[in-house]
Write a structure and sequence with these properties.
Layout: H1 2-15, H2 24-34, H3 43-50, H4 55-68, H5 73-84
Length: 115
């Protein structure tokens, strides 16, 4: 239960960077999908997993948040840094490495792209 409360506080903190309050549900829905046990973390499988009786509407809302909603990734990353950095212990030195390990999709046979 304590972990769920911590996640709720974290989501509330990140939501501050989204601007308009109607984007908060999109953030919660998308992050819930990313934390799901699905192998494919694209919007359609997430929508089917989260709301099997309303896949079309859930897909539309998730897609809108990811593709169309106007929010700043810089503000979200700042929120993440504000939350995470104070919890890190650099007293013995150390590094915080943030790296996108994805591959851009190119052609029909891209490595790491599920079809």
């Amino acid at each position: 239960m304590e972990d769920l409360q911590e996640i709720e506080r974290y989501m509330a903190h990140l939501s501050e960077g989204l601007g308009h309050s109607d984007r908060h549900a999109g953030l919660r829905g998308y992050t819930t999908g990313l934390m799901s046990p699905l192998q494919r973390k694209s919007v359609e499988p997430m929508a089917a997993h989260m709301d099997p009786l309303n896949v079309r509407s859930r897909h539309q809302s998730l897609h809108h948040f990811v593709a169309d909603a106007n929010w700043s990734d810089e503000r979200i990353l700042l929120g993440i840094c504000q939350w995470v950095v104070p919890l890190m212990d650099f007293s013995d030195g150390g590094w915080w490495i943030i790296d996108d390990t994805g591959f851009p999709k190119q052609g029909r046979h891209s490595v790491g792209v599920a079809r």
